Protein: Porin
Amino acid sequence: MRYSLLAAALAVAMGSTSFSAAAADNRDQTIAELKAQLEALTAKVAELEERSDAQSDVNIDTAAQLDKITTGSPKIDTKGGVKVTSADGKFEASIGGRIHFDTYAFDRDIASTTGTTEFRRARLTLGGKAYGWEYKLEQDFGAGTNLDGLRDAYIAKSALGGKFTIGHFKPYRAMEELTSSNELLMMERPFASATGLFSGRQFQQGVGYLRAGENYTAGAAVFNLRGASSSRNEGMGASGRVTFAPINNDNNTLHLGAWYSYENANQGSDNLSASFNYAGRRGPSQNIATTTGASRNEVTVYAVEAAGSFGPAFFQAEYADASFGQPLGADQDVTSYYVQGSFMLNGGHKPYKGATGVFGSPKVADKGLWELTGRYDYAENETLNREVTSWIFGVNYYVNPNLRFMLNYTQGDNEVTGDETAQYALRTQFSW
Structure:
C-alpha cells in the first residue's frame, strides 16, 4: 500500500514538471514571435520615415523651384493696356493707345463749312524704362503717317530732384495743353493753347526739366522751333511754368499757376501764328496775329491760371497776354482767355495730378458717370481790332475707365467777318 502511494506521488510530480516545461516553451515562442513582429514594424516605420524625408526634400525643392519661377519671371499686367515688368523692376515696357472718333454737323451762317466724320486721334503709344532711363514713342495715325503723326518721342532721366526730358515733347506752358487729350473737359482745347494761340506748335524738339511735389510743380524747357514734320530752322524758344495747390486733399483742390513762353524766329523758321477755330474743329478759322519767320521777330506770352475741384464741381481758367513782333510798325498785342467748368450729376470727382499740375478724369464706378460741361473762349488782337469768341455746352458720359462719350454744342462769333456759325459734335472715345 505504501509503495502504491509513493508511486502515485511520483507520477503526479513528474506530470507537473512536464506541464511547466511545456508552458515555458510556449511562452518563449510567443515572446520570440512578438520580438520578430516588433522588429518588422520598426523596420517598416524606418522605411516610411526615409520615404517621408525623401518626399519632404522633393516638396522643398519643388517649392523652391516654383518660388524661383514666380520671383524670377517678368510680371505682365493687362489692365487697360499691356505692361511687362522685369522681375527686378529695372526694365519695363508698355503698349497703349486711344481712339477718338468724331462726328461734326454745322449750323451755317456766313462761312462755308462741311459736316463730316473723322478719327480725331488714332494713337499707339510705346513706353517704358531701361537702365534707369525712361522712353516714350507715340504715333497718331489720325494725323498722318511717318513724321506727320509723331507725337511724344523722347527719353527721360530722373536727376537733381526732378526729371530731364530730351526729344520731341510739349513745352511747359498752358495748363489745358498739358492735360491729356483723354481727360479734356471739352472735345477741343481752349483758345489759350496750341489750338489757337500756339497754332501748329504743340510739340517741339528740345530739352526740358520738371520738378514736382505733392502740391507744386516747376518746369522749364528750351527748344528748337521745329516740329517733327516741319523743316529745319534756327528758330529757338523757351518756356517755364510753376504751379501751387494751397488746398489739396481727396475731395477738394485749389490750383494756382503761371507760365511764360518765348519764341524767336530765325533763319528757316515757319510763321508764328495765332489762328482760332471759333466754331469747333473743321469749322471756320480766323487768323488773329502772325509773326513771319522771315522777319526774325519774337513772340512772347505771359499767363496765369487757376482751377479747383470741390466735390462734384470743377472750374478752370487761364488768361494769356501775348505780343507778336512785327518787322515794321508796332508789335501786335493779343489777349486770350477762357473759363470752363463742370458738374458731376451722379457722384464722381475730378482728381488732381500733383506730378504735372493738371486735373484728370473722375474714377468711374459700375453705374457710369454723367457730367455737364461749359466753356467761354475769347481772343482779341487789340492792335488790329480782331476778335473771336465761342460758347460751348456739353455732356460727358463715362461708361467705364476706358470708354467715354462726349456731346458738344459750340456757338462761334467772329467780329471780323460777322460770322456766327455753330457746331454740333459727338465723340466716341476709347483709351487703353
In short: The chain has two domains: 1-73, 76-431. The first strand starts at residue 75 and ends at 77. Residues 5-14 have pLDDT under 50 and may be disordered.
